[in-house]
# Entry
Amino acid sequence: MKIALIIHELLIEGGGERQCVCLAHALAEHGHDVTVWTSAYDPDNCFPEICRGLRIEQVQRGRLPWLRWPWFVRGYLDMVHLADAIKERSELWSPQHWPAQWGAVWLKRKLGGAVVWNCNDVPNFYLRSRQTRSPLLKALYRLYYLLDRVQNRKVDMTLLVSEWAEREHTAIYPGPTRVVHPGIDPTQFKPGGERVRIRRRFACSDAEFLLIWLGIFMPHRRLEDGIEAVGHLATRGIKVRLVLAGSNRSFPIC
# Structure
């Protein structure tokens, strides 16, 4: 099957970017013809080891390429250009996050195929339109929410990362949904898997509780809370070990 993955930007080592390129590898390993389409790509700072061997096509930004804010206007302009620039037909368009599903449904209308949207984070235009005090922003967020609803009706399937996210999505958006849980391979941590080998790797004894945090080290993720909590447990004589596994390349001061 010819599959096109669409993501707005591939500029940093973020969770969404990693999910996109890892999905591209997995689909290719299953024999599919996979292309990743994006408006902006930085090969040196976006998982160069993982991206190696993938076909990644950068179509450049849309009108007003210097514009960065409002971010949702930037996303709209880039998706308009992306949908116009892509001439290859795909059987499946797989947009990642917002606003890629806009480009995907326009490509579906233009070239055919089906759209399966990986929506990790439910767009918050509806919430912002109700919470902001600025009449101008309120109207703008409301407009984008209504545009979102129109586009999302044309998505064949929306994939979400949790039942909570699915409830948030279905409360304000139409269309069929499914939950696909992300994260580590649970078979490696359950009895009978690779649990013992992993614990030995981190010099964790059988009597210790092992807490593993996986992800990009970013200031807003409050790693200090986990460190402080484990410190409190240790002072009470509880045998616990905290392992932080991830990258600090995007935020080296963390």
Notes: The chain has two domains: 2-179, 186-247. The mean pLDDT is 86.
